[in-house]
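Below is a concrete protein record.
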Amino acid sequence: MKQLLQKLAQFLFQFLDMALLVFRLGLGGMFMWHGWPKIIGGTAKWAGLGKTMGTFGIDFAPVFWGFMASFAEFGGGLLFALGLFYRPACLLLVSNMFVAFSSQMIDGKGLQKASQSLEDGISFFGAAFVGPGKYSLDYYLGIEDFANKAHRMKRI
């Protein structure tokens, strides 16, 4: 059984970069899809979103906070999908998902409602450590070159 699992891992590992591309495009694309209506919603939409910060005792500048949440979803999703400034984008999205999860739980919506933001936040947290793979703009620009080579050398 151990040998079978090792062979499976070896086989799948050769597709690591392609799998990371599919992961980035899928998850990043969905965040762009969710964030676009918020981006174009304007100040009224941003003010409504920004009121969420009141959960943490931050009641000033709700339009600013709402815009930042909208940007985190759409802009962060775009950067994540492209693999551009990938790790900072992951951290931006983790913080956005932390606020979403915390506010949903504090507002009493429960884990059934808050689970999606928790799951997404965990995914972005893990992705920040894994990196974008070689089919990314960060790799193309040389930002991730060292990290990917070091990772590959350990796996060989």
User: Anything to note?
Assistant: The helical segments are 2-13, 16-40, 42-50, 62-82, 86-106, 110-130, 137-140, 145-155. The chain has a mean pLDDT of 92. The chain has one domain: 29-154.
